[in-house]
Amino acid sequence: MIESKDLSKSFTTGKGKQAKTVHAVSHASFVARDGLITALLGPNGAGKTTTMRMLCTLVEPSAGQALVDGLDAHKDAVKVRARLGVLSDARGLYTRLTARENVRYFGELQGMTAQAIEHRMDILVHQLGLQSIIDRRTEGFSQGERMKVALARALIHDPPNLILDEPTNGLDIMTIRLLRELLKNLRSSGKCILLSTHIMQEVAALADEVVIISAGTTVAQGTVDELQQRADAADMEEAFLKLAFPDQYQEHFAQGAQV
Ligand SMILES: Nc1ncnc2c1ncn2[C@@H]1O[C@H](COP(=O)(O)OP(=O)(O)OP(=O)(O)O)[C@@H](O)[C@H]1O
């Protein structure tokens, strides 16, 4: 289970008189449960990546708590990392290493034995269809190939929780479908999956629960149906606009009504 408890994060940019504080995340609270896919849905700049970085132990919260299976991501970072697989927005791979070496290295960092790594590697190569690229250096890999290797790396230690930042970014429809199937299988095996997105189709295709985040704050959590009912909306897009931008939606609606 992954929990954001009143999380906040501010950044200071510039120095002296030029200094400015950016409130990237303000009092974000939600729960992503085991055996469910939870989508963190928000517009550009809403604070999705910053929230996920706090949950992944990469960024220290200014306030609040990031919890993974009840463990504090800041205070118990090593234990949290052992229980978490992360597909970050960067998908950074070591280009001098082969795909297999990249994945193996992460297994070693997690303290796995060589035998356990090779066992998991075989499963992931098969699951992700990596046969033709696993022993190639990752230099020059396409976006889809990079995503698959980064996902294998995130899953090598078979973590109970998975965090994916905009996982379908830049992928073709075949690769998106493969990813969706994989995530559904992982959900069936009881894993807790939290993904960020701003794509409505992604939410409709995958999410059991949706958390809407806007201007750094979580504004609603529920199933697609619950959110549509709550916003009195015909579809998820309308529900999202009404819940994430209530003032602008009203203004736009009022203007539309006058025309
Ligand atoms: N290191 C940083 N320094 C200063 N400001 C930051 C930093 N990281 C994030 N921000 C700001 O915090 C806000 C939230 O950014 P974040 O990347 O978390 O949003 P997002 O929802 O992931 O956006 P997108 O969908 O565009 O990737 C933005 O205004 C961003 O400019």
UniProtKB/TrEMBL annotation:
Matching entries from SUPFAM superfamilies are given as: P-loop containing nucleoside triphosphate hydrolases
A Pfam entry, by short name: ABC_tran
> Where do the ABC transporter domain residues begin and end?
2-240
Q: Per UniProt, what is one GO molecular function of this protein?
A: ATP binding
The keyword Cell membrane appears for this protein: yes
Q: Which UniProt keywords apply?
A: ATP-binding, Cell membrane, Membrane, Nodulation, Nucleotide-binding, Transport
NAD among keywords: no
Recorded hits in PROSITE patterns, A to Z, give: ABC_TRANSPORTER_1, ABC_TRANSPORTER_2
* UniProt similarity note: Belongs to the ABC transporter superfamily.
Q: Which PANTHER family does the entry link to?
A: ABC TRANSPORTER ATP-BINDING PROTEIN, ABC TRANSPORTER ATP-BINDING PROTEIN NATA
Tell me the protein's name.
Answer: ATP-binding cassette domain-containing protein
